[in-house]
Write a structure and sequence with these properties.
This protein is 31% helix and 28% strand. It has 367 residues and is of the alpha/beta class. The strands form five sheets. A six-stranded mixed β-sheet has the order 7-14-16-17-18-15. Strands 2-6-5-4-19 form a five-stranded mixed β-sheet, with helices on both faces. A four-stranded antiparallel β-sheet has the order 10-11-9-12, covered by helices on one side. The two termini are 48 Å apart.
């Protein structure tokens, strides 16, 4: 029996919340964490048609790439199109979950997959993210309480490093203390110096979770006054960030790159600006609507920018800089990533039926 909370925890592992853009709205947008899940539907965008399909298929949750709601809303009613969609799903007990920019920029996510399609080496993000402020908590625990205290700290949010959780370090040593008149020591007696075999326990904590983590330490620690240190850590260089820079195995024309993407993503027409025969080596990819990062990518040496869509004046800028741009289409540059999530869900949660939405299609048509 799989619950919504299990899906949410797994999504947090493959696409951590820290990867979401500041302006984005990701996670469980509507729904019950305790609800049982037997059937899931994945889609790129939650439209009226997709909502109807989800209800007909009797799914318990829709995994959508683009969030709905995208921006905060003051009311939830049928007076707006998005309100009507969310209300219909909610009354049927169907939750909504969005990954969006978390999956765009995750390891193995959409942007890295676009690089893999053309055999490009991943050089890292176009815009590296700033690492979150972190604190190292150091405490001293008697051997028999080490597991209990460690579990409490992990549960409160400590011990996460990159894609790993429950990370800690322990070192055995001897602790001393002298209980004064008002003390009530758990070990030994007051009025004399005691020596206790202890474990030095170290865990990394996000600053935003420091208060509940310290609270968990005090509640789980057997001592009346547990000793602990808080060490502020400097920001570390991050491999996370928006978009990806890539290096091709050999110089390639953008016409050849377009042909590879057309076959991999089943695209009938790919637009471009620049010299179609010019050979390029360093490229940049941003799925969806990523042209806002184009100039920054070019400043870092990218010769070709690959995204879903761009404005007219962005295209003129490409020409002025003697660069190239490939436009795969917003839908095509992201829909395959939604299907890859569905495939991963089927492997991870074999008891859950996972459907790809069949009612959604690229809204942009050609004659």
């Amino acid at each position: 029996m799989t619950k919504v909370s299990e899906l949410v925890s797994w999504f947090d592992e493959i696409a951590p919340r820290s990867l979401a853009a500041d302006w984005d709205n990701t996670g469980l947008l509507t729904g019950d964490f305790t609800a049982v899940v037997n059937k899931v539907m994945v889609c790129l965008t939650l439209t009226k048609e997709v909502a109807d399909e989800a209800i007909t298929q009797k799914v318990q949750i829709v995994i959508t790439h683009h969030p709905l709601p995208f921006k905060p809303i003051k009311t939830l009613n049928t007076g707006s199109s998005e309100g009507a969609i969310l209300w219909r799903l909610a009354t049927k007990g169907i939750g909504v979950y969005s990954l969006h920019t978390r999956w765009d920029d995750a390891q193995g996510g959409i942007n890295e997959s676009l690089l893999e399609m053309i055999g490009a080496k991943n050089l890292g993000p176009i815009t590296p993210s700033q690492s979150k402020e972190e604190v190292k908590l150091v405490t001293f625990v008697p051997n028999e309480s080490l597991e209990k205290v460690s579990e409490a700290l992990f549960e409160a949010g400590a011990g996460r490093i990159g894609n790993y959780k429950e990370c800690s370090f322990t070192l055995e040593g001897t602790g001393t203390f002298f209980g004064m008149d008002q003390s009530n020591p758990v070990v030994g007696k007051k009025g004399r110096r005691e020596k206790v075999l202890e474990q030095r326990l170290e865990v990394i904590c996000p600053s935003s979770r420091l208060q509940p983590i310290v609270s968990a330490l005090k509640k789980s620690h057997p001592y009346e006054e547990p000793a602990f240190d808080l060490v502020m850590l400097k920001s570390k260089p991050s491999n996370n960030g928006t978009g990806r820079l890539g290096l091709l195995a050999q110089p390639t024309s953008i016409a050849q790159l377009a042909d590879i993407f057309a076959k991999a993503l089943d695209i009938k027409q790919i637009s471009f600006a620049g010299n179609a025969e010019r050979l390029v080596s360093k490229i940049a990819v941003v799925c969806g609507s990523g042209a806002s990062l184009m100039t920054q990518a070019f400043m870092q040496g990218a010769e070709c920018f690959i995204t879903g869509e761009a404005r007219f004046h962005d295209l003129l800028s490409v020409k002025d800089q003697n660069k190239s741009i490939l436009l795969l289409g917003h839908y095509k540059s992201e829909r395959f990533g939604v299907e890859s999530i569905a495939a991963k869900l089927r492997v991870k949660f074999s008891a859950v039926e996972v459907l790809n939405s069949e009612s959604e299609h690229d809204p942009l048509k050609t004659f």
